[in-house]
Amino acid sequence: VGDFLRKELDETSLKKTVMVVSTSDESPLLRVRACFTATAIAEYFRDQGADVLLLMDSVTRMAMAQRQIGLAAGEPPTTKGYPPSVFALLPRLIERAGRTEQGSITGIYTVLVEADDINDPIGDATRGTLDGHVWLSRGLANGGHYPAIAVLESISRVMTDIVDETHQAAARAVRRVMAAWAQVEDLVNLGAYTRGTNLGFDVAVEMKPTVDAFLRQAMGERAALEETRTRLLKLHEMIHGAETRLRGAA
Questions:
Q1: Does 248 score more than 90 pLDDT?
Q2: Which residue ranges form the domains of the chain, and what is each CATH number?
Q3: What is the four-CA torsion angle of 161, 165, 167, 171, rounded to 10 degrees?
């Protein structure tokens, strides 16, 4: 916590930040209460007309604390040892974020999953409540690709409400390229892929380095939304151009 305060927050940010800390060596009751206390503080500022960013690390640790409480109270263990009270508690906490007439709370909740299992019960229950999720890939991180976001496993359920059709079409084109690459990657690595057998695969093989370059961002690098959108639309044009050229060469 001290490192985060010193390294990530400047003096201006600190003046607008409230931190609620409950470390893993504290009692399960305190760890659960810390999450609800932070949410209550965010609600206070939202009701004062502010737009609040609520960061919670992590929902999984809160669920583990509630598991200890539930099992101690005699609840039966269900999915992966979590008692029913855990799954009742998650929406009570998470659904308090959102917009009202006074202001808004944008909640970002981290979830730690066992063995990178996308169907982990806490992750699954959380995804069903939130407006979207960003999946971080250990494989991408090991390969030095940062931010290590697995685009195909990530989703936004509000994207269609906040960006225009041109933006959506460009995003779909990039996802198509990445999905095609995921299917053909093993063949390419083994040297068994033959160009010209599948147009989508040909485009993916050609565009993969360009897509990766677009998705990489250094820790200190800043990119405005409009700048990123412009680069995305240009990437869409490049993908379309590659499709047209490779179709003509087939």
A1: no
A2: 1-130 (3.40.50.300), 165-248 (1.20.1270.330)
A3: 90
